[in-house]
Write a structure and sequence with these properties.
Blueprint: H1 2-37, H2 41-48, H3 52-66, H4 68-101
Helix pairs in contact: 1-3, 1-4, 2-3, 3-4
Length: 103
């Protein structure tokens, strides 16, 4: 009985380690993508098929622990995107207005 429980515990620990490793790999992939493409959190989420919240958590919580240099580059990109956000929003509104009113 004790051996069975030990095997089950080892199996659970191995599964948890595999999940943690997968999350770490995803955080590194997301960070690399954002840094290479100067991508927004929203566009990164679309490309990877995950939520914006997940992208944000991966790059703000997991990435600094895993790869500080990559995190610094990602932080630069996200700060730049944050500063330009109002401009992109205005352009989207302008396109929508032109599309709806110039038909």
């Amino acid at each position: 009985m004790k051996q069975t429980l030990r095997k089950q515990n080892r199996s659970r620990i191995a599964a948890a380690d595999a999940r943690a490793q997968a999350l770490d790999e995803r955080a590194l992939e997301l960070g690399s993508y954002i840094a290479e493409h100067a991508a927004t959190v929203r566009s990164t989420a679309q490309v990877f098929g995950i939520s914006k919240s997940t992208v944000h958590k991966d790059i703000s919580v997991r990435l600094p622990v895993l790869h500080a240099a990559l995190y610094a580059r990602v932080r630069e990109v996200t700060e730049k995107n944050k500063q330009e956000r109002h401009i992109r929003g205005g352009l989207a509104t302008k396109r929508k207005y032109l599309q709806n009113h110039l038909k």
